[in-house]
Write a structure and sequence with these properties.
The structure holds 2 protein chains of 2 kinds. Chain A has 2 domains: 166 residues, Thiamin diphosphate (ThDP)-binding fold, Pyr/PP domains (Rossmann fold); 127 residues, Rossmann fold. In chain A, helix 1 runs parallel beside helix 8. By secondary structure, chain A is α/β, with parallel strands linked by helices. Chain A is built from 13 helices and 14 strands. By secondary structure, chain B is of the alpha/beta class. Chain B has a single domain, classed as 3-Layer(aba) Sandwich (Rossmann fold). Chain B contains 9 helices and 7 strands. Chain B has a 5-stranded parallel beta sheet, with helices on both faces. Chain B has a two-stranded antiparallel ribbon with strand order 4-5. In chain B, helix 1 packs antiparallel against helix 2 and helix 1 packs across helix 3. The radius of gyration of chain B is 17 Å and the shape is globular. The chains are: A alpha/beta, B alpha/beta. Chains A and B meet through helix 4 and helix 6 of A and helix 4 and helix 5 of B.
Amino acid sequence: MEFKATREAYGKALVEIGKIDDKVVALDADLSGSTKSAEFRKQFPDRFFNLGIAEANMAGVAAGLALSGLKPYASSFAVFITGRAFEIIRQSICYQNLHVVLCGSHSGISVGEDGGSHQSVADIALMRSLPNMKVIVPADYNETYQAILSSLNMDGPVYIRTSRAKSPVFMQDEPFEVGRSKVVKEGKSATLFACGMMVYLALEAAELLKGGGVELEVVNVSSIKPLDRETIYNSAKKTGRVFSLEEHSIIGGLGSAIAEFLTEELPIFVHKIGLEDVFGESGSKDDLFCKYGFTKEAIAERIKEKLNG
Amino acid sequence: MGEFSNLEKIARDLRKDILIMLNKAGSGHSGGSLSVLDILVALYFGGIMNYKPEDPEWEDRDRLVLSKGHACPALYAVLAKAGFFDRDLLWTLRKLGSPLQGHPDSKKLKGIEASTGSLGNGISQAVGMALAAKVLKKRYKVFCVMGDGELQEGIVWEAFMAANHYKLSNLVVIIDYNGLQIDGACNQVMNINPLKDKLEAFGFRTYEIGGHVYKNLIDTLTTAKRNVISPTAIIARTVKGYGVSFMANRVEYHGVAPADEELEKALKELDNGV
């Protein structure tokens, strides 16, 4: 099994689309080495702009570039690009429905040692709440790479969430379609909807549950907005039991999106697994995942409990 | 008749349009619209800006970003006069379905370069547009009109820093310095001075002029267009509510539209050139 960080895919794909389209410009806020936009700077120094530690202005500048016919890609840590620049993303980018791609790297608690100040637990909720914004949380390196390539031809604003930590590369390297979810493992006992590096963890939990006779269906919901209503509906209808798993607060993220949709279309219990309205803290990624319940054992246990309860 | 009497005449007519628009809307920002108007008239009718009303998206046009979006009645009146849309549309200001939104909306109205209203947003977009001109090798200029109170927003200084860093000599910032904001005098609410020193320290070639004197406006804007070294800032000293005696320098008229009798009185004053 190969392990790679999704942020690496951002850097690589950015260079690729820079070659395809000379209207692509990249912006960063002093974190280009970490977000991997520095790869683009090396290749296209005239189309890269560091805006310094000023995320709000970076978002506004991106809007101005988009209004002038360029295709800006702006990156920073997820916690800063969505939080510090929120108001500018709202008024200058989303309100004008501009094609600006925002990449938030270092999302969730897998940031690790930097601690709670740098761990974004609410970025999906923030971005999802804005009209016109698309929210994409790819499951692995391959899907991130494809999502960035595909973002070149999307309309309007896009938020793509990547991670610092390496995670298994397991998705097919095939074109990404926004608004499409993929059933990555079929099952009939219950559905586990997951996003980001949690998808692989979901598959591992499904393996564990198999022994106990639970056939878990796992769906990769990398497109949180727009949501693939059909795939989600069909899976929930088939299994009748729904779980969600995300490296994000259970308030406003993937689980909320699924629950909001299903309450209208298919009233059903939705059990959300994620961060329980808490901030993260310092520690290694593995220690943090243990503490906050992001291990295959803990996830399998919770699902088993609920199914038996 | 003075050298700029034609611009003064246009401004007098547009002040009347602004007041009628606001009166019909029943709400909106009178004071700032009247203070900023001469700046906009100088830009659009004083031979400063290149634009084609019949082709609003002409790629070589100069851009105007009204960062103090609440003063949009003035911009709407100017754009109608310039031929971007029919003057009758002015009377739909702030009404449901009108492209003349309470704050400028680039998606709804031709001639609006950027949606603004939440203060500080315009200048960052203007910096982006000026930066784009460098990437695209275009010679257009970007004019950003800001309020003085607006300068209290932190993003403004982030944007100024970037403008200097990238040597955006194609960016001209004009500050409608009327000295008042909603809660009172700017320098009592939150002091922005010494403003000229601050702008110069941020790398702007900075001018301080009378914002209702056309000779000053035209001369300074012409000089600013020729600057190839650094961004330019023009502190235009204006009077909030300029042109209407009972609104002039009155903070009460920041966000209030004239009632019928006030409108009548104001129009009479403007007709008589009080």
